[in-house]
Amino acid sequence: MSDVRNNVPAEQGKNAIDGKIDGNRWVAVGEGAHWIEIDLDKVSLIHGVCITTGNSQGWSQSGYEAKQFEFQAWNGSGWTTLASDTQNAQCTYTGHFLPFRTNRVRLVTHGDTRLIEIEVFEKIMN
Ligand SMILES: [Ca+2]
Questions:
Q1: Cα 114 to averaged position of ligand 1 atoms, centre (Å)
Q2: How far away, in angstroms, is 118 Cα from ligand 1 center?
Q3: Which of 14, 37, 48, 90 is positioned for an S-S bond with 106, CB 3.0–4.6 A?
Q4: In this structure, CATH architecture of domain 3-123
Q5: Rounded CA gap, 91 and 54, in Å?
Q6: Domain locations along the chain
Q7: What distance in angstroms lies between residue 4's CA and the mean position of ligand 1's atoms?
């Protein structure tokens, strides 16, 4: 993870990429945009994302979904949106898209965000 906007010190961005679906989350509250940026460590061919949000017990619960978000990848000079929603009602959102080559992704959310985990699906390149 190379950067994160974080305004709840006890609930850090690293919690969203620790591989665990539990009560440890990245939390950013308030109106406006929040983001978490993830360095994939290498150029990868990605084709999907799973965004899991929920309460402090790690459970999905109505009201904890990332209602409006953009999942974006770095294209070398800017950000390309690969998946987005403005009315998402799922605490576990899974989106698929055409394979995209990148080494960096970010999730931009709008409003209160309680992200338990974000997973990016990668196609294995030979
Ligand atoms: Ca986690």
A1: 11
A2: 8
A3: 37
A4: Sandwich (2.60)
A5: 6
A6: 3-123
A7: 15
